[in-house]
Amino acid sequence: MNKVTDLTLDGDVAVITLNSPPVNALSAPVRDGLFDAFTAAVNDPAAKAIVLLCDGRTFIAGADISEFGKGPSGRALQDVQALMENSPKPVVAAIHGTALGGGFEVALTAHYRVAVPSAKVGLPEVKLGLLPGAGGTQRLPRLVGPEVALQYLTSGDFINSDVALKSGLVDELVEEGKLREGAVAFARKLVAEGRPLKKVRDLQDKVEAARGKPEIFADFRKANARRFRGFDAPEANIKCVEAAVNLPFAEGMKEERRLFEGLMTGSQSAAQRYIFFAERQAAKIPDVPEDTPVLPVRKVGVIGAGTMGGGISMNFLSAGIPVTIVEMQKEALDRGVAIMRKNYENTAKKGRLTQADVEKRMGLLTPSLDLNDLADCDMVIEAVYENMDIKKEVFAKLDGIVKQGAILASNTSYLDVNEIASATKRPEWVIGTHFFSPANVMKLLEIVRGDKTAKDVIATVMKLSKKIGKVPVLVGVCHGFVGNRMLAQRQREANKLVLEGAMPWDIDRVLYDFGFPMGPFAMSDLAGLDIGWSKDKSSSSTLREVLCEMDRRGQKNGRGFYDYDEKRNATPSAEVEKIILDFAKKQGIERRKISDEEILERCIYPMINEGAKILEEGKAIRGSDVDIVWINGYGWPVYRGGPMFFGDLIGADKVLAKMKEFQQKHGDDFKPSALLEKVAAEGKKLHQL
Ligand code: TC6
C-alpha cells in the first residue's frame, strides 16, 4: 500500500480510504494503492466485507486526465476492477461528492453502492471526446436499460442521488455526513443477511429485452442528429450500447476498448481534454495570486433594462444575489422586468424551475428610475448604449453616488475601459465586463482589465463570474478585446469573398460544416442588417447598406441575405445574388470561382494571426485563453479546440506560409504577426504560449 490508500478494520469490515487531492483521480499511484489495498483486504481473514470510500471533497472523479496520451505506468484499472468484482467478500462503494467517469466505473464493479443524498454520479467522458473505457458502456445498460444509458452516456450529465437510487445505480442512501458509518453498517447487514455478491456484468434482462430492436438506436440517432453534429464521441458511445445489447459481456468489452482507443488517439478528444484544462487555467492570473482578498458582493446594481441589462441581472438573481435595476423611462423599465419574468417562466414551463423559484428570483429584483438607488450596491454594472460619451457621463454620475469600495463595471464590447475609468476619481475600482448575448445564457465573460484596475477588484470579479455560472477570461484594453477583434477579421474576409466570387450561402455552408452553429451571413440576418443603419445616412457603399435600402433587413422582415418563410427557414435569394453581381460589377471586381478550401483559410487564418497579435501585445494572458473565448462566446466547435489549438493542428508554419501567399495576392490585411513568424520559426505551439 502507498500513501494514497489507507486500510483499516472497523470490526469485521475492512475500510479502504483513498486520499489523493484534489479529486481522487485514478492516477498511477491511486491505481497501485487500490490494487494493494484490495489485495490485502481480500486476503485478511478478519475482514468479512470491504468498503471503499474517499477522503476530501469527493469520491473518485475519474481517470487522471492529465495522464492521457502519456505512456502506460502503474497497474491497469481493469486489474483493480477484477479484484473488486471477483472478491469473495461483498465490496461496497461509498459515494460522496461526484463519482464520475472511471470513478463511477470503479463503483460499478463493487457489488453494492451507497451514497449520501448530496452525491452525484455520472459518465461524463463524452464531454472529453471519449467513452467510459473501463466497462461503463457495458455495465450501465445492464443496470438502467439501453434507452436511459444512451441518454446518460451521450449527454455526460451528472445524476442526482435520488434518481440514481430509483434507477438502481446506487442501492441505498445514507445520512449526510455519516457516510463511513452508514456504509460500514450496510456492509455488515449484507454479511448478516447473506446477500449475494451482485455483479452488474451478469445482469441480462434489460439488454435482452432490447435485442432485435434496432429502432431504439435508429430513433435515438435521428432525434439527436443536430446535437451530435460533428462530434465523434456520441456515435462511439451509441455503438458501445449496441454492443452491450447484442454481444456477450466479454465481446462488448472488446468493442468498447477498440472504440475507446480510436477516440483517445484522435484529435477531437485531444482538443476537448485541452479545453477542460484551459478553462480552469483561464481562472489563474499570474500577478493576482489565489489568496488575493475578495470583496463581498451582496448586492448588485445594473444600469439599463434592455436586452443586455436584463440578461445580466438574471445571472445574479439566479445565483441568489439581489439586484437593483435602473432605467430612465418607466415603460422601458416595466418592459425589461416583464421580459425577465417571462424568460424565467418559460424555463419553468420546460420543467427546469418551479414557480416558487421564479418568484424567489424576481423577489430579489428592485426596479428603479433613480440612479441614487445604487448608492449602497457592492458592484454596479453599466449596460447602456455603446457610446463613449454616454458611458463617461454615467460613470461620472456613479462616482458621485455609489459608496466608496464598490466595483464599477462597464458592459462594453469595444470601448476603452481606461477612458471610461478616467471619468471617475477611482479608476482602480473600474473594470470592464463584456457579457455575450443572451447574457443569461452565454457562458463567456470577457473581463477587461484597465491600466489602473486593482488586483482585488480583478480577483473579486473573476470569482463572482464563476458564482454566476460564467467562464471568465481576463483580457486587456484594445478595440473589440479578444473575441470581437478576431471576429472582425473573419467578417472582413467573408465580405470580401462575397464580392470576389463566393455567395453568402457558400461561406455560411463552409463555416457551418467546419462546426460553427451558423455562418456569418445567417448570423447577420438573425441580428438584423439594419443595426446602426439609417436611411438618410445610407450611402450605398457597402452591400449591407444596399440590402437595407431595398428593405432587406434580415430575419425580422423575412428578407436579408436569405429569403425566409413563415417558419424562418432560410433559402438563398435570387434577388440578393443579382444585387451582389451588380455591386461587384460597379466596383470593377472580376468575379472568379472560389473553392471551399480558400473560403475556410481566408476566414480562419487571419483570426489565428490576430490571436497571435493579441498575445504579442499582451492583451490575453495565454494562447489557451484565446481559445476559451472562442469556444464559449462564438460557437467555435469544441472538438476543434479553438483557433490557436486549430492553428497548431494545421501547423503554425503552414498558417504562416498561407498568410504570406494571401498577403502577396490580397494585401496587408494578411500581414503575418511577428509572433506567428517566431512560433513558426521556433517550432513552438500557439496554444501553449
Ligand atoms: C475518465 O474517467 C475515463 C475513463 C476511461 C477509462 C480509464 N483528472 O473542476 P475543478 C482537477 S475521463 C485530473 O476546478 P470543482 C482540475 O484540473 C474523466 N485532474 O473543481 C482542478 O485542478 P487545478 C471523467 C482533474 O469542484 C482541480 O482538479 N471525469 C480531474 O469545480 C479541481 O477541479 C471527468 O470528466 C481529472 N479527472 O469540480 C470529471 N478532475 O485546481 C472532470 C478535476 O489545478 N472533473 N481535476 O486547476 C470535473 O467535472 C470537476 O473537476 C469536478 C469538481 C466536478 C470533479
Automatic annotation (TrEMBL):
Residue ranges constituting the 3-hydroxyacyl-CoA dehydrogenase NAD binding domain according to the UniProt record: 299-476
Pathway: Lipid metabolism; fatty acid beta-oxidation
A Pfam family that the UniProt record links to this protein: 3HCDH
Domain 3-hydroxyacyl-CoA dehydrogenase C-terminal: 480-564, 599-684
UniProt-listed InterPro entries: 3-OHacyl-CoA_DH_NAD-bd, 3HC_DH_C, 6-PGluconate_DH-like_C_sf, ClpP/crotonase-like_dom_sf, Enoyl-CoA_hyd/isom_CS, Enoyl-CoA_hydra/iso, NAD(P)-bd_dom_sf
Oxidoreductase in keyword set: yes
UniProt superkingdom: Bacteria
Keywords from the UniProt entry: Fatty acid metabolism, Isomerase, Lipid degradation, Lipid metabolism, Lyase, Multifunctional enzyme, NAD, Oxidoreductase, Peroxisome
Major localisation: other
Swiss-Prot/TrEMBL catalytic activity: a (3S)-3-hydroxyacyl-CoA + NAD(+) = a 3-oxoacyl-CoA + NADH + H(+)
Subcellular location as annotated: Peroxisome
Oligomeric form and interacting partners: Monomer.
Family stated for the protein in its record: Belongs to the enoyl-CoA hydratase/isomerase family.
Protein name: 3-hydroxyacyl-CoA dehydrogenase NAD-binding domain-containing protein
Gene source species: Camelimonas fluminis
